[in-house]
């Protein structure tokens, strides 16, 4: 670790601080007086602030993170020493300490490593000769209170050497903290005694148990933080690939190899000089980011959230380049560093095995035990690899140089025989990446083996991830290398692009193995029919986002990549064309399903003309399911699945030649007849009246079970003469909650319902909007589920339902509750999206389609629908989609005469009003209070969100 130079400003070193504090004591005549303490505290605050300013300035100038952390640690050392001197000499006025009163001030934990971020905790250990004395207690108390009054977070313990040793034997946390112990001030002989006894009585002979404890602690931390290092809002301290992983390596090194600094790991043969330099590089970068993060936020923030990523990129001087924003280049660098930390971990573990550590669990998921009684055996079909305790290992150091195809072949054998990877083998792979040249990329055998790994019936995602971690994927497929560690600066994608691609392959494999049949019934049913074409799906999924980060549309650019790459991988011309088409259209099905009216004939006809064949439709729906599911936790839900199944069914009918208007009428008639049969227990007149009041769209869009439920709900409400009623239902499968509203129709009804939901903290994910022939609105709003327990979620939904009723009935004045409850999320402030409004008359034969894109915020749906009503537009169907911070809403509308919006000047006016709403600068139009008695019917308005 480099040593920071002395601060360029005077007064923040130990001697200067001590001199000034003594002068303060002299001026007051008593260092222990309240007035003296006030002046002392004021000066120390100046010292702390000045020292941090110097550290921050140097961080900007040099970019050296470890130097910054060292300087902040040195600053705290100077303050602690000066406070100790001041307390001893000017407060308690003790000239000569007895042997029983002497104590040592020792830094432990992160402070003990002499590296501190601006907001880091300070861990102090007061080491006593044998037991506490009144003076020792007073000194410790004075120092602690002074540090606390400086707003520092101080952890502390006061123990004798005996107590430190005894507790270290039973508590791994205490043992670890003392492992990092560093002398600051006081009786140095006590610190040396602690070091010697800790080494002889605690460390000696206990390496195995210590390492097991540290690795178990690490595994638990990774599980808590997420099992992957490629989450887009990583924790720089405790996340996978963060500073704590490097610290864990050094803890184990200090304990096992008995080294005192990192450079000694080269002498011990643990790291090569290049690997040691990589360790230093990773640590310096992570410390730079962490210090900037603390300076930026003014607190001990460890999560690199969206709200700070752009500012961090600016502070670290990342600029946009080659299609990537500056913030995306910064985060890509971060993830590459996190990957390097993983590489160092594997190298370190390999060396531990060579040193014969007994029964140490794996350092990560690649390994099983460290070490073990070596049991090797041959692998069928090769002499280049062996099985080493159920893990594939190299037969000799020339395995890859002798035949570079072995780099790919090793992963193929591991997949075939279900083997984990020996760290020696992975280490040699990493050191042999230069062998992956054009000749290997074009080698037919290497490409055949790779496709077999990708399309394996076992666990293709696992081995692709191992290839990626080892750096093989990016070398073997250079286009994939361009998206390794690439993040997209948005709230929708939870992982880096390379991790998303591998996860999408994981999802397909899980569906194929029957593990997700309940969640994905359609894809599970279709896959067996496509068995002979399965490699088309696997290759398409592996490549579908491979062109992300380029200036051109990634779907089009990705298709071009596939057209060049697939023949190299051994795919036929026909397979290549299909893969390229799937990549080109990989977003189209989800877009249509979520943002188009699936009951509109033109929607189905247009999408059928896009896919053209039933074969393509089947492939595309499976790819779409896997793509959405792999975006991140909570992105997929049953509601999206239902939309995809509906679209698939309608287009399947169209492609098989059975989609005609007369058929649609026949289907509606059959649906009407089925509903009547399900209501056979009703009186004939009531049954006939109810069935006849629904339009065809309702009967063709809503599931028959829901139709029956709605019928009972409407009958009960109308029998009780309720002009307004709500019904709630939870759905754990769809991961959404339904709130059905029955009210007299009104042009602003959807706007008011949306506002009421937002004011209650509910985020609308979709809706079905229908009116009956006699003027009732039957709207079902789908909101994101908040609780996993159905009981809790049902109670929440009922509260929201009551909020809707209160607003619609006039009991609650909506603007009042909106002003207090609808505040934008802090995270959203990090994003800016250029508002876009398009009016299209070619997407529907009967309606104009308004497409809206903009930054999400609470209540925006209410504002948009209210503006549409103010523009005298009749909303026939609305479709709400949220992609993280971005809303993509589609509205099927007509004017009040039922005609499309064709006048250019009116279209211009509509676009301007809606863009102003999206920018948050629309005129403050009061929200109309809608009551049951004032509702206005809009015949035939029906559809779905």
From TrEMBL:
Keywords: Hydrolase, Magnesium, Multifunctional enzyme, Nucleotidyltransferase, Repeat, Transferase
Presence of keyword Nucleotidyltransferase: yes
Swiss-Prot/TrEMBL catalytic activity: [protein-PII]-uridylyl-L-tyrosine + H2O = [protein-PII]-L-tyrosine + UMP + H(+); [protein-PII]-L-tyrosine + UTP = [protein-PII]-uridylyl-L-tyrosine + diphosphate
GO-annotated molecular function: [protein-PII] uridylyltransferase activity; phosphoric diester hydrolase activity
A biological process term (GO) from this entry: regulation of nitrogen utilization
Pfam families found in the cross-reference section: ACT, GlnD_UR_UTase, HD
Entry EC no(s): 2.7.7.59, 3.1.4.-
Top-rank taxon: Bacteria
Limits of the HD domain: 497-620
Residue intervals of the ACT domain: 738-819, 849-925
Database matches in PROSITE patterns: ACT, HD
Positions of region (Uridylyltransferase): 1-378
Modulation of this protein's activity: Uridylyltransferase (UTase) activity is inhibited by glutamine, while glutamine activates uridylyl-removing (UR) activity.
Ranges where the record places region Uridylyl-removing: 379-737
Cofactor: Mg(2+)
InterPro entries found in the cross-reference section: ACT-like_dom_sf, ACT_dom, HD/PDEase_dom, HD_domain, NT_sf, PII_UdlTrfase/GS_AdlTrfase, UTase/UR
Known function: Modifies, by uridylylation and deuridylylation, the PII regulatory proteins (GlnB and homologs), in response to the nitrogen status of the cell that GlnD senses through the glutamine level. Under low glutamine levels, catalyzes the conversion of the PII proteins and UTP to PII-UMP and PPi, while under higher glutamine levels, GlnD hydrolyzes PII-UMP to PII and UMP (deuridylylation). Thus, controls uridylylation state and activity of the PII proteins, and plays an important role in the regulation of nitrogen metabolism.
Domain description: Has four distinct domains: an N-terminal nucleotidyltransferase (NT) domain responsible for UTase activity, a central HD domain that encodes UR activity, and two C-terminal ACT domains that seem to have a role in glutamine sensing.
Stated family: Belongs to the GlnD family.
PANTHER family: BIFUNCTIONAL URIDYLYLTRANSFERASE/URIDYLYL-REMOVING ENZYME (PTHR47320), BIFUNCTIONAL URIDYLYLTRANSFERASE_URIDYLYL-REMOVING ENZYME (PTHR47320:SF1)
Name by which UniProt lists this protein: Bifunctional uridylyltransferase/uridylyl-removing enzyme
Organism: Oricola cellulosilytica
